[in-house]
Design brief:
Elements lengths: L1 H24 L5 E5 L3 E5 L6 E6 L5 E3 L2 E3 L4 E3 L3 E6 L3 E9 L3 E11 L3 E4 L3 E16 L2 E2 L5 E2 L1 H5 L6 E5 L2 E2 L3 H11 L5 E6 L5 E6 L2 E2 L5 E2 L2 E16 L5 E4 L15 E8 L1 E6 L8 E5 L6 E9 L2 E6 L12 E2 L9 E8 L5 E11 L10 E5 L2 H7 L10 E4 L2 E10 L2 E9 H8 L1 H7 L2
Parallel strand pairs: 1-9
Antiparallel strand pairs: 2-7, 3-6, 3-8, 4-5, 4-7, 8-9, 10-20, 10-27, 11-14, 11-20, 11-22, 12-13, 14-15, 14-16, 16-17, 18-19, 20-21, 21-26, 22-25, 23-24, 25-26, 28-29, 28-31, 29-30, 30-33, 31-32, 32-33
Organism: Halothermothrix orenii (strain H 168 / OCM 544 / DSM 9562)
InterPro entries: PDZ, PDZ_sf, Peptidase_S55, SpoIVB
Pfam family, one: Peptidase_S55
């Protein structure tokens, strides 16, 4: 009987320790980014002794106000405060009783990069590297029969035509011209970039249609144009980030490789209000030859990037503000900046309803909810063209709006500002001078 009671107590203790472990250790991140000179605090409601030791050399850190050397540090408080006074990275090993491994925390101390939030409406013009295949068709030959030369050769929607018979193709006009010029000589060899990135040479037999023109049975395009929002810019270098998501070809959803691109000042002339099941959009106007803000150099999962020709203004910020690391973003109230009429930037209330802890860059880092009555009345919530609208919390740039929930236009996703700024190289430049 005593043995059974003893076993019951033993397993009860194991269960209690396991529960404390589960709930407490999950408050500790597997990766942590902090700004140089700042600290990050975590609550640890753990009844047993936790020990921390730095793995390898790495940078020096302060744990609960004390410098952490190579020796093990025992956490006596119910809080863990991590502070980095030097830019760099290291790892922390957390152990129970100094013996049982619990978690490894990868710590990255970032330079204090400050940028101006955007909010300006921009026109986005992209020209693709090669000609994109956006649809397939038949060719009605001179004999009245239907032919499918491109389909039979294995060309698919989402592929990109780079060359014909070794000659580079820059746009769809050039493509059509080369087909007419070279087709009388027989079979064409197209150099194709497939959707998965492979480069293939594909032979195609062009067909002469009833009008006497040679065709290969494809719908093609060589660029896109649209309206979005500038997220941030660096006042010193002119480097900027916008949109917060990748630009893809509409039909295939394949990322567009940039040959050239530019962003242009835009004006919002109207709003199609978002409804459940039907996303809204900003109606914008811009002129390709005027008010060019800058060039586009990169089209990534986290937005478009390049350099500004001139610096725009945001009336809400007289000075650049810090970029908050992803691991520091908190759920709660925040502000966004965007244009809903003309070219005037306005400030609106939002709520960060959920934060996803990401140890590596990811496109969907948080869930945003529009709470501002004025914005909900004007737009119905998050709409197309609002992508890239900066999210600011406690006077720090935390991210940008990227996507809307189709079934609830007041809610959508946001990307962390840290991942966007990482694309510009601003962190690397700041490290070089520190």
């Amino acid at each position: 009987m005593k043995r059974k009671i003893g076993l019951g107590i033993f397993f009860g203790l194991i269960l209690i320790i396991s529960l404390f472990y589960f709930f407490s250790i999950n408050t500790l991140p597997s990766s942590l980014s902090i700004i140089k000179g700042n600290e990050s605090t975590f609550n640890i409601n753990f009844p047993f002794s936790l020990h921390i030791q730095k793995s390898g050399r790495g940078i020096g850190l302060k744990i609960n106000g004390q410098v952490l050397g190579q020796k093990e540090f025992r956490i006596k408080e119910n809080q863990l405060q991590v502070k980095g006074d030097k830019v760099g990275s290291t790892s922390l090993n957390v152990r129970l009783f100094g013996i049982i491994p619990l978690r490894t925390i990868n710590v990255n101390v970032l330079p204090d990069v400050k940028v101006y939030p955007g909010g300006q409406a921009i026109g986005v013009l992209l020209r693709s590297k090669g000609v994109m295949v956006v649809g397939k068709s038949f060719v009605e030959g001179k004999d009245g029969r239907k032919y499918y030369p491109a389909v039979q050769s294995g060309i698919e929607v989402g592929d990109t035509i780079l060359k014909i018979n070794g000659i580079e193709v820059y746009d769809k006009v050039k493509l059509a011209s080369l087909i007419q010029k070279m087709a009388p000589g027989g079979k064409l060899t197209l150099e194709i970039k497939k959707k998965d990135g492979r480069i293939k040479k594909i032979p195609v037999n062009p067909v002469k249609n009833k009008q006497g023109k040679y065709m290969i049975g494809l719908y093609v395009d060589d660029g896109v144009a649209g309206v979005g929002t500038l997220t941030f810019f660096d006042p010193k270098s002119g480097e900027y980030g916008a949109l917060g998501h990748v630009i893809t070809e509409t039909n295939s959803q394949v990322k567009i490789d940039i040959r050239q691109g530019k962003i242009i000042e835009a004006r919002i002339s109207g709003i199609n209000t978002g409804k459940r099941g039907l996303p809204g959009e900003k109606l914008g106007t811009f002129f390709q030859t005027k008010q060019i803000l800058g060039e586009i150099r990169k089209n990534t999962q986290y937005g478009i990037y390049g350099k500004l020709n001139r610096l725009p203004e945001n009336p809400y910020f007289n000075e650049p503000i810090p970029v908050l690391p992803a691991s520091q973003v908190q759920e709660g109230q925040a502000k966004i900046y965007t244009v809903i009429k003309g070219g005037k930037i306005e400030e609106f209330d939002v709520s960060i309803d959920r934060v996803y802890h990401q140890s590596h860059p990811g496109a969907k880092g948080m869930i945003i909810r529009i709470t501002d009555p004025q914005l909900k009345k004007a737009t119905g919530g998050i709409i197309q063209g609002m992508s890239g609208s900066p999210i600011v919390q406690n006077n720090k740039l935390v991210g940008a709006i990227t996507h809307v929930f189709v079934n609830d236009p007041t809610r959508g996703y946001g990307v962390f500002a840290e991942w966007m700024v990482l694309q510009t190289g601003l962190y690397d430049k700041a490290r070089a001078v520190q």
